Amino acid sequence: MKALAAPAKPSPVRREPVRAPPDDIPAQHWQGGPICCAACPYAKLLMLGEGLGCEPGHACVQDVYARRIDRFFSWHPALSDEQLSHPYFEVRAIAARRASVFRLGALISDPDETVRMQVAMRLPLSQLARLVSDPHREVRIRVAQRLAPADLTALRHDPDYGVRELVAQRLPLALLAVMAFDADRAVRKHVAQRLEMPALLGMADDAEAAVRRIVAEYLPVALLSCLAHDTDWRVRWEVAQRADMATLESMLNDTEPEVRQAVRERLKSTVTHLGARNG
């Protein structure tokens, strides 16, 4: 009986390379000088051809240019784990995008923040708290974006306002009131947009008009009178958009023409609406 022929091995899938722009920077070794393929541990990949192996000046792990390093790992993601301790930070950072998540813990204390940022974006949530006190703001911002809301309390007093802004947008409401006294206006604006009564009423005395204006947008109508004579006309204008009849009448002689106009229009609209409903 004639033996069956062994099935042919499938041909490797060729990855179509994306041509580098003509104005790309010249190929250069990450330590300076020309690239020597003979000294590269992946020199054998040169024989595999374009899109499968490597290509100096286009996809190369030894290049100084991050795009060419990224092309190399996009063709060979399985090699990422091998390069997590590479001496060039760009190689470590790009390898961390595709490396096994089980290997990322070793990079939490990497000396370069670019590497730690990549770690912060991929590290399992159960380990992410280890980066809460990272010295670089961009790393902590990525931590604040990914942590579960209930775990954000450690970042409420972060020294960077950008981190605290993210916390103010995601922190559970039950824990948000303490941030109403944040030193930064931008943070307090986010707090005012989310805070509920009665804590929101406490922000009606905020030192910044931009914050008080947001408070005027969200306060219950019955409490808007506390801002009807605010020192900033923009806050008073916001009050006029929602205030009840009694509050509007107290604002008829406002010193700002824009506010007086808004008050008159609201009163006219309210009276017309009541007349139509009663008629």
Structure description:
The chain has 279 residues and is an all-alpha fold. The termini are far apart. It has eleven helices and no strands. Among the domains are: 25-99, no CATH class; 220-279, no CATH class. The longest helix has 22 residues, at 257-278.
Q: What's the short version?
A:
The protein is an all-alpha fold and 279 residues long. The protein is built from 11 helices and no strands.
Q: How helix-rich are the residues, as a percent range?
A: 25-40%
What structural category arises from helix and sheet content? mainly alpha
Largest sheet: none
Order of helices and strands: HHHHHHHHHHH
As a whole number of angstroms, the C-alpha radius of gyration is 30 Å
Which spans of ≥5 residues are poorly predicted at pLDDT below 50? 1-18
Counting DSSP H or I runs of 4 or more residues, the number of helices is 11
Number-wise, the strands total 0
Instruction: Measure the end-to-end span.
Output: 102 Å
Strand content: under 5%
Mean pLDDT, to the nearest integer, reads 90
| Rough outline | elongated
Secondary-structure blueprint:
Layout: H1 66-75, H2 89-98, H3 113-122, H4 125-128, H5 137-146, H6 161-170, H7 185-194, H8 209-218, H9 233-240, H10 245-249, H11 257-278
Helix pairs in contact: 1-2, 2-3, 3-5, 5-6, 6-7, 7-8, 8-9, 9-11
Which features does this protein show?
single chain; 279 residues; mainly alpha; disordered N terminus
